[in-house]
Specification:
The structure holds 2 protein chains of 2 kinds. By secondary structure, chain A is mainly alpha-helical. Chain A is built from 11 helices and 2 strands. Chain A has a two-stranded antiparallel ribbon with strand order 1-2. In chain A, a hairpin with a 2-residue loop joins strand 1 and strand 2. The longest helix of chain B has about 40 residues. The chains are: A mainly alpha, B mainly alpha.
Chain lengths: ~280, ~120
């Protein structure tokens, strides 16, 4: 396969990955990395670099529509970005210390968790009765319009959420993904934020988190321009289409089908990593 | 009152990100089409990791290549611009919170900005 055919095939696959990533809220990186490694036989480090750049593109590209809706909370986002960017530095540092096979195994486990999280989509967590005093001191609260009335919220369990976010940042830096599934875990389960607030705020944070490891990836040579080109353009295009469709359709069946795909990819990544084929 | 100004800050941030990502994607597209026109027939080689050269791993190397209208240099410039958009968003945060006289969040935004700058300066 020459460069032209390869780029076209990767571009097409990336559109699909970006589309599915946007539909499920997991992001394109989770799909495109195993596909690049397993199907296109790309070195895992190049796959991580191409994915990380696409993650930034998706996050920034979706920002405009999220801002229009007005659910995101810039203070909560900025506060948690302290944790995610520090974690991302650690994760990017670790990619040079850990072999490609180990990265594959860890990636596979994250895929298995993502598959589970996709099927068990959370309902709105009931707001906590007693707000965290730390949240009040840090001004981690807000309100958003729901059915014509302003609904107020205050974050709970701030230290726990901060810790989980550090972990999410580390995974993002180590695996070249946005790790949206883990971020939602911190904001929905720990902070008990309304679902709309957590998903839109998480989208903002993903780009900043990925930027923290992008410099390190670039200096190590993981960001290969010729490979980034089809992956980034494809994922961006796919996610923009996905975000449009998302607002109009109920996607339960797609979600279950997608979970099955990432379950299979996860199992194969773990198998290939353990048998030293990555 | 303060809410309206905060909303304005958010909208400005979103607009900036959108413009940044659009220009970045166009640069990557133009560089990519040039690259495919010149090298489309070559065999691909992404299976094994190679030690990369300064031309693709340093900001000065990428900018120099792009200035010479090298296709990979132009893609690289688009990627750099893309990475810069979230960094600009944090700078926006620092300035915006200072403008709103929110000292705590000006400080928090400055911490995030220093972590981001550290990752580019430390380079490894």
């Amino acid at each position: 396969m020459n460069v032209l055919l390869f780029s076209l095939a990767v571009f097409g696959t990336s559109i699909l990955a970006g589309f599915l990533g946007a539909m499920t809220g997991l992001g394109g990186g989770v799909v495109i990395i195993p596909v690049l490694c397993l199907l296109f036989k790309v070195d895992i480090h190049y796959a991580l670099g191409a994915s990380l750049v696409s993650v930034i593109a998706t996050s920034s590209g979706a920002a405009a529509s999220y801002v229009r809706e007005g659910f995101s909370n810039i203070r909560i986002g900025m506060f948690l970005e302290v944790a995610t960017t520090l974690g991302a530095l650690l994760g990017a540092y670790l990619t040079a210390k850990v072999t490609g096979n180990w990265i594959g195994v860890i990636f596979g486990m994250v895929l298995l968790y993502s598959a589970w999280a996709t099927v068990h989509k959370l309902d709105d967590v009931p707001p906590s009765t007693k707000p965290d005093p730390l949240a009040l001191r840090l001004n981690l609260k807000g309100s958003f319009p729901e059915n014509g009335i302003e609904r107020e919220y205050v974050a709970s369990h701030v230290p726990a959420a901060f810790g989980i976010m550090f972990g999410a940042g580390t995974l993002s830096g180590l695996l070249g993904i946005g790790s949206g599934a883990v971020k939602v875990l911190a904001m929905d389960y720990a902070m008990k934020l309304p679902f709309k607030v957590s998903t839109t705020t998480s989208n903002f944070m993903i780009g900043v988190t990925a930027a923290a490891s992008a410099g390190i990836y670039m200096s190590r040579g993981y960001v290969l321009p010729s490979l980034v080109m089809p992956v980034m353009l494809g994922v961006l295009l796919g996610s923009l289409i996905g975000a449009r469709v998302l607002t109009r359709t109920e996607v339960k069946t797609i979600r279950i089908g997608f979970a099955a795909v990432i379950l299979a990819l996860g199992a194969e990544m773990i198998f290939n990593g353990m048998t030293g084929r990555l | 009152m303060a809410d309206a100004r905060e909303r304005g800050l958010e909208v400005a941030m979103g607009r900036m990100l959108q413009v940044g990502v659009t220009i970045a994607a166009l640069l990557v597209l133009i560089g990519g089409l040039m690259y495919l026109a010149q090298n489309g027939g070559s065999p691909r080689d992404y299976e094994h990791f190679h030690a990369a050269t300064r031309a693709t791993t340093t900001i000065s190397g990428i900018v120099t290549n792009a200035a010479h209208l090298d296709s990979l240099g132009i893609i690289g410039l688009g990627i750099l611009l893309l990475i810069a958009t979230p960094v600009c968003r944090v700078i926006f945060g620092v300035v915006g919170f200072a403008f709103l006289r929110d000292n705590l969040y000006t400080f928090i935004s400055l911490i995030v900005l220093s972590v981001l700058l550290f990752s580019f300066i430390s380079q490894r």
